[in-house]
């Protein structure tokens, strides 16, 4: 394995299999971003979502997928050529993975691809380990999804951020306020399948509040209008947002929400206070709308 990958892994606690796998995925995510940069992807698109928050702003939870949005709508956009850049970059750093576009079965506003490789074989590439490895099935796949919104809601704000590892490169990503708008949209409007709450939405929401980041209200409104959760031409006020949040918090199964986020965090005590009363109270005190 490339020595730079070993250096990148040094900042992680890899003492347990799940932590090791999360660390390995995050290194792969960062090298994938480098591949996209080399392919000129960030001239057309911006990075957003939980992984953007993790890599560039240091939220203390791991994130699984790489989410992007085009700067301008383009329903003819194809992710295929960028997959080649990502795969080439990862292979150059010693990872044995394939990057394949997902074939669409119907009209969709999202272009998707998957990075896939054997967990065990890539762990063996990083360091000298011999199977079996406790906590890792020999046939386990390491999978990271890439998604690109080809019909993005307008009025997002962007910034350029720089990374130094594995080599210097630049990524265009949503501003923190626009990132918060995306997370707020997920928290308010996401269809939690089978009633199962995505606790990662709640965890990220608290991170934004803790860092006094205002939510980009105009971008949030555009997102909600696009998905049919808000009427076009109607103002989205701070009080409207607070009322919607209060209603959502009362519908959450907090036990399920905690179970969703546990695999991605190390400080489980941060979840102890989660309840309807806690989220309503902290929102009243800390939410800032821009």
Please characterize this protein's 3D structure:
- With 290 residues, this protein is α+β, with helices and mostly antiparallel strands.
- It has two domains: 172 residues, Roll (Nuclear Transport Factor 2, Chain: A); 110 residues, no CATH class.
- Helix content is 43%, strand content 15%.
- It has a five-stranded mixed beta sheet.
- The longest helix is centred in the first third of the chain and has 22 residues.
- It is globular, with a radius of gyration of 19 Å.
Q: What's a concise summary of this model?
A:
The protein is of the alpha+beta class.
**CATH-wise, what's the superfamily of the largest domain?**
JHP933, nucleotidyltransferase-like core domain
Q: What structural class do the secondary elements suggest?
A: alpha+beta
The total beta strand count reads 7
Alpha carbon gyration radius: 19 Å
Q: How would a textbook summarize the main sheet?
A: 5 strands, mixed
Number of helices: 11
Tell me the domain tally.
Answer: 2
Q: Tell me, rounded to a whole number, the average pLDDT.
A: 91
Order of helices and strands: HHEHEHEEHEEEHHHHHH
Helix content bin: 40-55%
Distance between the termini: 46 Å
> Given the C-alpha coordinates, what overall shape results?
globular
CATH class of the largest domain: Alpha Beta
Strand content: 5-15%
What is this structure's SSE topology?
Blueprint: H1 3-9, H2 17-38, E1 45-48, H3 50-57, E2 66-70, H4 80-92, E3 98-101, E4 110-118, H5 119-126, E5 141-149, E6 158-163, E7 169-174, H6 176-189, H7 199-210, H8 217-226, H9 238-250, H10 254-261, H11 276-286
Parallel strand pairs: 2-5
Antiparallel strand pairs: 1-2, 3-4, 4-5, 6-7
């Amino acid at each position: 394995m490339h020595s730079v990958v070993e250096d990148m892994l040094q900042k992680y606690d890899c003492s347990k299999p799940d932590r090791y796998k999360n660390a390995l995925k995050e290194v792969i995510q960062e090298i994938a971003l480098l591949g996209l940069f080399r392919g000129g992807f960030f001239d057309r698109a911006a990075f957003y979502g939980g992984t953007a928050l993790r890599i560039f702003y240091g939220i203390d939870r791991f994130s699984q997928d790489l989410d992007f949005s085009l700067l301008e709508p383009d329903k003819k956009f194809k992710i295929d050529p960028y997959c080649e850049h990502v795969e080439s970059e990862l292979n150059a750093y010693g990872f044995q993975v394939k990057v394949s576009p997902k074939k669409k079965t119907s009209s969709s506003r999202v272009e998707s691809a998957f990075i896939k490789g054997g967990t065990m074989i890539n762990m063996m590439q990083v360091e000298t380990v011999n199977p079996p490895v406790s906590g890792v099935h020999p046939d386990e796949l390491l999978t990271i999804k890439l998604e690109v919104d080809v019909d993005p809601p307008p009025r997002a704000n962007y910034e350029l951020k720089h990374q130094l590892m594995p080599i210097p490169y630049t990524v265009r990503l949503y501003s923190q306020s626009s990132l918060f708008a995306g997370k707020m949209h997920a928290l308010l409007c996401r269809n939690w399948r089978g009633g199962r709450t995505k606790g990662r939405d709640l965890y990220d929401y608290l991170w934004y509040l803790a860092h006094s980041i205002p939510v980009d209200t105009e971008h949030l409104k555009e997102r909600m209008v696009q998905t049919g959760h808000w009427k076009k031409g109607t103002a989205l006020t701070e009080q409207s947002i607070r009322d919607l949040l209060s209603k959502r918090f009362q519908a959450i199964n907090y036990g399920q929400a905690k179970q969703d986020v546990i695999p991605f965090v190390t400080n489980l005590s941060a979840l102890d206070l989660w309840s309807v009363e806690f989220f309503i109270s902290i929102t009243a005190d800390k939410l800032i709308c821009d």
